[in-house]
Amino acid sequence: MAATVRLMRLGKKGHATYRIVVVDKRKPRNSAYIEAIGTYDPHQTTTPAVQIKKEKLAYWQGQGAELSDGFAKLLKGKTRINFV
User: Is the overall model pTM greater than 0.90, yes or no?
Assistant: First the structure.
């Protein structure tokens, strides 16, 4: 199975939040996912906007999961990230 780590959009119109999920590469954006490994709230200012389970991310990358373009850009950017 070809897996990818990507952002799943949640929240209301104009105030999106995202769940970081591992999903089959061939599935659409908000389809059923294999595992949720974190969250991203772009509107949050006081605490880290991105929270990721570091062990789960490392496990899935070890299994051959690719990072989506949006998620890879999020990791490389200047966003506050909290690895738990």
Answer: no
CB 67 within 8 A of CB 4: yes
Which residue stretches of the chain are H helix? 54-62, 69-76
Cβ neighbours, 10 Å, residue 69: 9
Domains of the chain: 3-83 (3.30.1320.10)
Q: Identify which has the larger pLDDT, 3 or 1.
A: 3
- What is the percent of the chain with per-residue pLDDT over 70, rounded to a whole number? 99
Residue 27: its pLDDT value, please?
87
Sheet strands side by side (includes 15-24) = 66-67, 3-12, 15-24, 35-40, 50-52, 81-83
For residue 33, which of 62, 9, 51 has the smallest C-alpha distance? 9
